[in-house]
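Practice problem: predict the structure.
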Amino acid sequence: MKSIRWALIFGIVYSSLLTAGMAQFDEMRCNYTARFSCSPKGCNPVPEAALTESFLILPGLVELEHWSPPKESERADLIAELKSRAMTTEKKHLRSEFPEIRRCDSKGCGPVPIFPLRTPTGFDLRVFDGTYFVALNTANLNPFQVRRGEFFEVATMLNIAFVGYGTCPLPEEDASTDGEE
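Answer:
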């Protein structure tokens, strides 16, 4: 009887993963719906051409969910390496140590190594020094008009902030976990 129950549970989980789509496993392309450049004088929208040509490529949900930080003994060396690379034009791939966001435009894509942090509403995807992050919503929070798959991005440089909003193609979640309680 137990083996039938486990087989049934496995079948339900397996079919849920299949019907959820590969967005959970693969990288996902996220498109901007609005972008702004902000300074002490206020915020201005970026030109329409820059909005439509730009997009993000984020790691899949499974990679974000299962990533674990490097061991304490390795962390200082990896952060020193990231700081060193930030000062050069070297674009070595860091997939084995850190997940990456790729920021793309008409000129190509640039990798941004991140630390994914799980939050009650999704993930905060941050760089080591706090100058860049993306918040990805994986839950619907209807009272706040926050929808699954929406993201916002903040990048800072001196006294300027670049803010972006957009959507990512997350699979639908079932009605029992839609964020409403």
